[in-house]
Amino acid sequence: MPPFEHPGTSTSPQADASPLLRRLRATLHLTEREIDAVLALPVQAAEIERHVDIVREGDRPTRSFALLEGFACTFKFTGDGRRQIIAVHVPGDIPDLQSLHLTTMDVSVGTLSPCKVGFIQHDALRVLCEQHPRITGALWRETLIAAAISREWVLNLGQRQAPSRMAHLICEMIVRLWVVGLAADLRCEFPVNQGELADAIGVSPVHVNRVTQDLRAQNLFEWKGRHLRVLNWARLVQVADFDPTYLHVPADFLPGDGNVVYPGAFGRGA
Amino acid sequence: MPPFEHPGTSTSPQADASPLLRRLRATLHLTEREIDAVLALPVQAAEIERHVDIVREGDRPTRSFALLEGFACTFKFTGDGRRQIIAVHVPGDIPDLQSLHLTTMDVSVGTLSPCKVGFIQHDALRVLCEQHPRITGALWRETLIAAAISREWVLNLGQRQAPSRMAHLICEMIVRLWVVGLAADLRCEFPVNQGELADAIGVSPVHVNRVTQDLRAQNLFEWKGRHLRVLNWARLVQVADFDPTYLHVPADFLPGDGNVVYPGAFGRGA
DNA sequence: CGTTTGGTTGAAATGTGTCAAACTTTGTGG
DNA sequence: CCACAAAGTTTGACACATTTCAACCAAACG
Fold first, then answer.
1. Out of A82, A101, A241, whose CB is closest to B141?
2. Sheet of A72-77: strands edge to edge?
3. What does the alpha-carbon distance between residue B262 and residue B243 come to, in Å, rounded to a whole number?
4. CB of B255 within 8 A of CB of B175?
């Protein structure tokens, strides 16, 4: 499938940066002036179909994009064609923000579902950063959280077995979607098939199938079509060995009404 | 073992930030003023023994540190006590720079060998960044490269088998050390034992032993004590499926005298 | 309604883990 | 400089999680 080229007729010429703004304001109190500056960003909106690459390994982009609606993922191939999904992106993310400072893409980003995205030229972002140091900090922070997530994935792939890996990915998705209001009631869109999940947790599609049945049998969640519903959050967290610290979300933004005990950095005795 | 506390008598009270400076200048031309600003940073030097934690998961540091000499690593435990080494740090790195913008550490950093480090208060870094936007960019870039490295580790752990994983880690170490002049002639310090290597590539120590013997038998490298010597770089790169793009090192800074063909982002036919 | 996409199953092959013991090297104190 | 302890490496036998292959089935789709 060809990569995403310049937006065609299906593209609305402009969009506002409000999802981006919402994201930044979640952790940082912005002044009027800063808010205006973000909203003044020239954003080129585009709708992109499922399973289309937006940027590819080797590209040298002059713009980044904010994911406004839908799901995307970052991935990479080994020399013999095995794909690893390295991150899943949810609305509000800026999946290729790193290209602002790293000229060559070392990964590809593609859509998992139909998406709405907003492209922003690097020049515009650079001006924004120069004039608003606190926004620089907030964007930098975004890239640091993305980095924290890949670090956790390293742990997940390196040390946990398939059932935990899978539960862990689901926990992460739920929390991140919860934060942006897309997983109220522990239900969410999850437009991924078993093969894609397999590429994300580093196991074969067949094994994903078996593990899924197992977890389903334990009544941890329902997953059908593009919809996911967690039935037993506390237990899922336990199976996943999930500690949300790495997501750097304030504690009161986490799902689980206070009854769920996350392992926590000090939960495993000294 | 207790974490690293306030530097004791073995600590020389100050050090200069020149290794840090060298790193920044590698990709960015700094002005006199910028150079002076970096050198003026108050750096508190300390010598730290092998196998000591410098920062721990859950900490809320008010400073970061530059690794001046020696090897360190970032790691994390699962709930049942399995350790994953998430990154290996070489001189010039700032392993916990993320704490500048993320208040709580989501990983630990510890020494692999005796190290010399230089602590820098976050306040000082923040002032530096405010006054020198290009230095902000360079530091941000450093964190982005660290992120790119963990992404590659995700691929490595998720899709490659033990022999490739191991070869890949060695290739990465060689390139990163080569860049800072510590792997001339494809030899370098590698103060890691088989158990630690196991934690880094996500396999058991026993299996590391077997795989090592295998790769050694193929005359790819010698590894004895704390010293590593690559005997067949081209072949090692091949076994590792190693494409150094993700390290974001200019091509002419790579080892291999031009005869080595790295797979490259487009080396696998489209 | 047929075609495509995605899910499910079983049996056999395999890479890696585990355990426990022996061996070798390195470091250290007498 | 030796002797001993500690740390690290090597081995074998066996267990097990996961892969592979191939077939079949079910649901979604146009």
1. A101
2. A53-55, A108-111, A72-77, A83-89
3. 6
4. yes
Q: Which nucleotides of C are covered by protein (CB under 7 A)?
A: 5-11, 15-20, 25-26
- Nearest-5° Cα angle at B29, B25 to B31: 105
Helix axes B194-201, B205-217, angle to 10 degrees: 100
Q: What is the pLDDT of residues B104-121, one digit of tens each?
A: 999 999 999 999 999 999
Sign of CA dihedral B176, B148, B238, A56: negative
For residue range B45-57, what is the model confidence (pLDDT) as tens digits?
A: 999 999 999 999 9
For helices A32-39 and A133-159, angle between their N-to-C axes, nearest 10 degrees? 70
Beta bridge partners of B228: B188, B223
Angle at A165 between CA A161 and CA A170, to 5 degrees: 155
CA distance A234 to B80: 18
| Contact yes or no for B143 and A143 at CB 8 A | yes
Looking only at the bridges linking them, the beta strands covering A63-69 and B187-189 are unpaired
pLDDT digits (tens, 9 = 90+) for B69-84: 999 999 999 999 999 9
Query: Is A225 in CB contact (< 8 Å) with chain B?
Result: no
Least CB–CB distance from B106: residue in A77, A148, A268: A148
For A148, name the nearest residue in chain B, comparing CA atoms only: B106
Nearest to B177 by CA among B194, B191, B156: B191
Nearest-CA distance A12 → chain B (Å): 31
Which residue among B84, B157, B268 sits closest to A202, beta carbon to beta carbon?
B157
For residue A11, give both structure tokens: 């593209």
B81 touches chain A (CB under 8 A): yes
pTM value is 0.94
Q: What is the pLDDT of residues A198-230, one digit of tens each?
A: 999 999 999 999 999 999 999 999 999 899 999
